[in-house]
């Protein structure tokens, strides 16, 4: 279900599905975990140049951290700040993991033709002329990866509870894509996939 008002767009993205929308510079993008412990694979493309896109590796390089705080930005592969983190009620997200895709479910869980963030994002971005990349490397909202001193990475249940959200400001015109991750085989989404909410508020003036 989606409703579009004159100045604000609010979309409830059902469990295991994706959504994309164009947002103008200055817009505030709020992503809410409606029920808690739901990961959102979030990608962003420069609306004028799809080769300039959100890049988790570059973001970690610039921030010198795998955590992002309010006031800091998410960067593109061209080292351009695309989104500024404005508010964050959780503070734990993931830059490490690429989008889940059917092959992942085959390799890790022996399941064929599983719904995936890769497919959700491709489908959502298609109307904006963004061709499927060989893989999506998202900013994984609410996803919790725990790294130990030996380099072991564990994906555990998110810290997010019902109503937790992140709010980011678009620093340029963007096409953003979101996928409510359909993995219920691991603690990634607390073994339970649920809907998410997207609210976009254009810059006031
Ligand atoms: Zn996923």
Describe the protein in words.
- By secondary structure, this protein is mainly beta.
- The chain contains three helices and 14 strands.
- Helices cover 12% and strands 36% of the residues.
- The strands form three sheets. It has a seven-stranded antiparallel beta sheet with strand order 1-2-14-4-12-8-7. Strands 3, 5, 6, 9 and 13 form a five-stranded antiparallel beta sheet that branches.
- The protein has one domain (9-201).
- Strand 1 (2-4) and strand 2 (9-13) form a beta hairpin.
- It has helices spanning 56-63, 102-109, 117-125; strands at 2-4, 9-13, 18-23, 28-33, 40-46, 49-53, 73-75, 81-88, 139-141, 144-147, 153-156, 164-170, 174-180, 196-201.
- The radius of gyration is 16 Å and the shape is globular.
- Bound molecules: zinc ion.
- Residues 41, 99-100, 117, 181, 183 line the site of zinc ion.
What string gives the helices and strands in order? Answer: EEEEEEHEEHHEEEEEE
The largest pleated sheet is described as: 7 strands, antiparallel
Total helices: the number is 3
Placed side by side, the strands forming the largest sheet appear as 1-2-14-4-12-8-7
Pfam families: DUF1989
Domain DUF1989: 12-175
Organism: Paenibacillus xylanivorans
Protein name: DUF1989 domain-containing protein
Please provide a brief summary of the model:
The strands form three sheets. The chain has a seven-stranded antiparallel β-sheet.
